[in-house]
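Please decode residue identities from the backbone states below.
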């Protein structure tokens, strides 16, 4: 997600760019919204900027931004509400839904939780972020970053 695609968040983008240029990025950010206001695209942009800030060279920068734009950067992790399906019988975790999530994220970044449920085939179920997800997150964060820089986790709909 590039900065020009983020609608109506100029003040936050300016603050973020200033913090990034000074090297004073907080270890955690909480973005709250009333649905459809762009917290997810904003978090995705922040993650991209942070992950690609330390990359040197225009070609490496372009590769980093492309991988982030496809939500495929190895140090970018997404956690979001999921539930069991015909394909995922038990212990649903975000990583088991990455392909539909990447498609959803790139095609509908301003979408709602109910739109995600419909997209992922979870319309009749209550999605949640469960204990298995927390255990997976702890394991992932204990590992060294793949590219030697920052590791970023975007938790969407954390109240679930």
């Amino acid at each position: 997600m590039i900065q020009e695609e983020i609608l109506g968040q100029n003040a936050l983008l300016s603050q973020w760019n200033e913090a990034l240029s000074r090297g004073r990025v907080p270890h955690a950010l909480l973005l709250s919204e009333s649905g459809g206001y762009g917290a997810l695209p904003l978090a995705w942009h922040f993650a991209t900027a942070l992950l690609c800030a330390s990359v040197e060279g225009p070609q490496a920068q372009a590769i980093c931004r492309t991988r982030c734009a496809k939500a495929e950067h190895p140090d970018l992790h997404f956690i979001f509400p999921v539930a069991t399906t015909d394909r995922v019988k038990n212990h649903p975790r975000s990583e088991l839904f990455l392909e539909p999530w990447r498609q959803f994220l790139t095609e509908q970044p301003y979408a709602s939780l109910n739109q995600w449920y419909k997209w992922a085939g979870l319309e009749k179920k209550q999605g949640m972020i469960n204990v298995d997800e927390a255990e997976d997150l702890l394991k992932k964060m204990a590992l060294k970053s793949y590219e030697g820089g920052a590791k970023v986790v975007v938790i969407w709909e954390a109240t679930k």
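Observation: The radius of gyration is 16 Å.
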